[in-house]
Write a structure and sequence with these properties.
CATH class of the largest domain: Mainly Beta
Number of helices: 4
CATH superfamily of the largest domain: Jelly Rolls
Helix content: 25-40%
Order of helices and strands: EEEEEEEEEHHHH
Strand order of the largest sheet: 1-2-3-9-4-7
Number of domains: 2
CATH topology of the largest domain: Jelly Rolls
CATH architecture of the largest domain: Sandwich
Distance between the termini: 5 Å
Strand content: 25-35%
Length: 181
């Protein structure tokens, strides 16, 4: 499996330090290099916690309505069901580590798929898949849950994901193309 992924659309890099199935703890550990202005949308997970540690620069973490700025060596946790997002509000790139506890092969595959789709020009300029079933599959595999108004789309996205999984060929196509072991 390719350990380092780059998203040419948004300019961030993810490096897999440890996969859930590898010896040691059952965690997934990734290091993220995020350019100024980069980040993700508010979301939450039901099946794992995310532990953030700043390695270089500054990374901002929004937990609910509170925004925390982490500097090198500082840590914060986004527990299960807590709405959160990370972003880089500084003028310099930042590098931080995220430990997914317990590890999530679905989260790992989602990163491979989304970064692969980005490399193939298959994402919108906002970094979302052009095909709704792909977005549904990504949301389902990664245990991403959307708060507020976007959350109203969640049942539709889950239905599309379940259809893609039941059909077999769509999910298989994405996994074969982007999730090489």
């Amino acid at each position: 499996m390719k350990r380092t992924l780059e998203n040419p659309l948004i300019g961030d890099v993810v490096h897999f330090v440890k996969l859930a199935h590898e010896p040691g703890s059952p965690d997934t550990v990734v290091e993220v290099t995020l350019k100024p202005g980069g980040g993700n949308d508010p979301h939450f997970h039901r099946t794992f916690d995310e532990h953030f540690e700043c390695l270089e620069g500054e990374v901002n973490l929004q937990l609910g309505r509170q925004i925390v700025t982490l500097r090198p060596g500082e840590r914060a946790v986004a527990p299960r069901r807590a709405v959160h997002r990370f972003f880089n509000a500084s003028s310099q790139p930042t590098r931080f580590r995220v430990t997914i506890r317990p590890g999530s092969p679905g989260f790992e595959h989602t990163l491979q798929i989304i970064y692969g789709l980005a490399a193939d020009g298959q994402l919108t300029r906002h970094g979302r898949p052009r095909k709704l079933w792909q977005l549904g599959l990504i949301v389902e595999l990664s245990d991403i849950n959307l708060p507020g108004l976007p959350g109203l789309l969640q049942p539709l996205l889950r239905r599309l994901a379940h259809k893609a999984i039941a059909d077999g060929r769509y999910e298989r196509e994405l996994r074969q193309r982007y999730c090489a072991e």
